[in-house]
Amino acid sequence: MILASLLVFFTCIWITLTPNAFAAAEIKKPHQCCSSSMKWTRYSKQETRMRKDDSTKVWPLKYKQLLHIEDHDFAMRPGFGGSPVPVGIDVQVESIDSISEVNMDFTMTFYLRHYWKDERLSFPSKTNKSMTFDHRLIKRIWVPDIFFVHSKRSFIHDTTMENIMLRVHPDGNVLFSARITVSAMCFMDFSRFPLDAQNCSLELESYAYNEEDLMLYWKHGNKSLNTDEHISLSQFFIEEFSASSGFAFYSSTGWYNRLFINFVLRRHIFFFVLQTYFPAMLMVMLSWVSFWIDRRAVPARVSLGITTVLTMSTILSGVSASMPQASYIKAVDVYLWVSSLFVFLSVIEYAAVNYLTTVEERKRFKKTGKISGMYNIDAARAMAFDGCYHDSKTDMDQTSFSLHSEEDSMQGRFTGSPSIDSPWIKRRQPLGGHVGRIIVENNHVIDSYSRILFPIVYITFNLIYWGIYV
């Protein structure tokens, strides 16, 4: 009994002294307690403010429980077994990246937005505010399976995360937006190239759900298609953007709703005027220069004709290399081939002139026994080789001048002035006028007509061509 009484006594003393020891320890560190309490108070105030600003903190439940994702089978469309679910579409075109005539396709970047109602996603809300999610929720709920008809490749941008946004309203209305780049076919008609306008369209359709399950429509009618003001292309300018709708029939699955994004592109002509049309015009005009060159200057006229023909061939091959292998005639082909025909005819014209001149001289030689005209056979042969005119009379004057130069100089010393009829005066006559008179007198009648006929016909062709295609 004594031992038990002592044990109880010491226990009471220990209990009494222990709180005092703890109190003394707390008194030794007053600043640390104050600082920690101040930090805790500041943190609690910030958390309270964040909870007030963030409306999602009001709901203690997770989004899976709030949207009832685990309670429904989202493999089925909304209202399965009943009327088709209406899905509105809204498109904001960001840019048209490229137009390829060779591949006959275009590349476009745009924001594709879907609107539909799924009552399975409705949730209670006192403020009637919507909730926004990123791409991580898309795989857990039902979304429309829209695909692009005649597309070659397409992708959703994923920098820095997938560019997908999902917004759910308390009544179950859903907005699904994605930033997409699509390369699709554009069936182009090049019969008027490069004076053409191309009609391209991007077609949207549901892959699995026909018109009995899903109804696609433009959310805001014609205003559902919007474009940025800064959209521009190097070779085209955009005339119009329009939205339309229709139906597509497949023999095995039935009718489907289809939406169309239509846009008209008109080509800039100035580039092709500088690179194609203007050089072709210059080559045709250059070929007409041969009509003014003496018909006996064979090397000059032949080399000029061959040069213009080869240049036109280079222009033709350059245009064909940048174009698809179309099986029909294009507008630029008509112009270039007609221009090549004019250049080719200028070469044929000189061949006809040379041949007829030779025939005419042979006939005169048979009748008179000598070559008529202002030049003989030796002069004609010399000009055929070096392209320069050799006048026999001038050569004789030059010989006479060399023989009588001393006599004329002596006569000039006594009289004080040279003789008017001396060969020196004849040599001082202007050579340009002499050669011009020779060319006119020896010009063939075909050259005379060609100087007028070729320009008139070519100008008429240009008036008809530009009148039809422009």
TrEMBL record:
The keyword Cell wall biogenesis/degradation does not apply. It holds the Pfam family Neur_chan_LBD. It is a multi-pass membrane protein. It is found in: Postsynaptic cell membrane. This is GABA(C) receptor. Residues 276-363 form the Neurotransmitter-gated ion-channel transmembrane domain. It comes from the Eukaryota. It catalyses: chloride(in) = chloride(out). It comes from Camelus ferus (Wild bactrian camel). GO terms for cellular component: chloride channel complex; postsynaptic membrane. The chain crosses the membrane at residues 269-292, 304-323, 335-357, 452-469. Keywords: Cell membrane, Chloride, Chloride channel, Disulfide bond, Glycoprotein, Ion channel, Ion transport, Membrane, Postsynaptic cell membrane, Receptor, Signal, Synapse, Transmembrane, Transmembrane helix, Transport. Residues 1-23 form the signal peptide. Belongs to the ligand-gated ion channel (TC 1.A.9) family. GO terms for molecular function: chloride channel activity; extracellular ligand-gated monoatomic ion channel activity; transmembrane signaling receptor activity. Residues 69-268 form the Neurotransmitter-gated ion-channel ligand-binding domain. Gene3D superfamilies: Neurotransmitter-gated ion-channel ligand-binding domain (2.70.170.10), Neurotransmitter-gated ion-channel transmembrane domain (1.20.58.390).
